[in-house]
Amino acid sequence: MSSSPILAKTFQAAPAHLAQRSTFLWLCVMVLLWGLSWPATRLALDVVPPLWLAAIRFGSAALCLFAVLAIRGQLAFPPHQDWPIVASMGLLQMMTFTGLGMIAMTHMDTSRAVLLAYTTPLWGVVAGWMILRQAPTRWQLLALAVGLAGVALVCSPWEMDWTAPGAVMGTAFLLTGAICWSVAILHIKRHRWTASPLALAPWQMLLASVPLSGFAFALEGSPAAIPFDPKLLELLLFIGPIATSACFVISAEHGRRISTFAMSNFTLGVPLVGILASVLLLGNRLSMLFAAGLCLVFSGMVLAAVAAARKR
Fold it and tell me: Which of 142, 140, 182 minimizes the C-alpha distance to 311?
């Protein structure tokens, strides 16, 4: 009889342990799919113009999430209180970051594009300082210094050919997109959510895809010229419904079950997977200087996550 309380605790702990393992596995799947979406996007850009690809990505992902919410009986128009976050995420994080990023990817190798795009945590320190008047801590200043040193190495004339067509524009577009994403993240942290992030996601994607389609039609012409063969359709299926909508569901369902610090560490794996996949699948070459810059940028991102956790 004396062992029954111990057995009861063991059986109670088992489901919790299994739930933690399930969350870990699903988040690993999310990181893997998001990372692989970068080389898949680069392959699709050989056929589809960048703005049309961004519009197709979010348009198809929005349709999938609208269907998921409808099946769950959770489909509803965003509450008035959530309109600002729908606008900032839809226009800054999705439209601007993705649109500029895809244009930039047509002018540089994918590994460098991934690295520069994921400097967002570094710019978050600057954005919080300039917009919210939050003086950075010593840890945040260290993170910024280390990360920007890595950016300087990756963008140095010894590593990057600044005379190549589109090199300056591509780098500027990626850094601008990363800064816009960091501003959206600041808003996300301060917003008082009425509806859940998952319930708002398809509306944000729809808001992003409409102006992207308009810009694409004006700047890149009609999509009728795009050759939608089976290989391209497979890439589009992966980039939109799988790597965007499915990963967003995973993030919404499982990301809330771990701490913000742990989630930040998980997302650090996305650029690493993206860079490694670009080397293996696209034949990108990593020089010693790029590897050194990568280590510094990654260290800066880790320090930024630690600084945020210490501040909280």
Answer: 140
How far apart (Å, rounded) are the C-alpha atoms in residues 168 and 162? 6
Closest of 270, 253, 1 to residue 114, by C-alpha: 270
Residue 209: HSE in the Cβ half-sphere, 13 Å Cα cutoff: 17
pLDDT one-digit tens code per residue, 58-96: 999 999 999 999 999 999 999 999 999 999 999 999 999
Alpha helix segments (H runs only) across the chain? 4-44, 50-72, 83-88, 97-105, 110-117, 120-131, 138-154, 167-190, 197-220, 230-237, 247-254, 260-267, 269-282, 288-311
Task: Report which of residues 197 and 214 the model is more confident about.
Answer: 214
Q: What does the alpha-carbon distance between residue 181 and residue 121 come to, in Å, rounded to a whole number?
A: 9
pLDDT attached to residue 125: 84
The C-alpha atoms of residue 201 and residue 222 are separated, in whole angstroms, by: 27
For 242-285, the DSSP string reads IIIIIHHHHHHHHGGGS-HHHHHHHHTHHHHHHHHHHHHHH---
Q: What are phi and psi of 49, to 5 degrees?
A: -60, 150
Q: How far is residue 130's CA from residue 236's CA, in Å, rounded to a whole number? A: 38
The confidence score (pLDDT) of residue 134 equals: 78
Q: Which residues contact 53 (CB under 8 A, 6 or more apart)?
A: 41, 44, 45, 102, 239
Note the pLDDT tens digit of each residue in 33-45.
Answer: 999 999 999 999 9
Q: What confidence category does residue 274 fall into, taking pLDDT thresholds of 50, 70 and 90? A: very high
Query: Per the structure block, which two tokens stand in for 275?
Result: 């860079």
Computed over every residue of the chain, the mean pLDDT equals 88
Asked whether residue 181 carries a pLDDT value surpassing 80, the answer given is yes
Give yes or no for a contact between 198 and 111, defined as CB atoms under 8 angstroms apart: no
Task: Tell me the mean pLDDT in the region 250-255.
Answer: 78
Give Cα separations from 211 to 34, 57, 79, 207 (angstroms): 24, 13, 22, 7
Sign of the Cα torsion 184, 186, 189, 195 reads negative
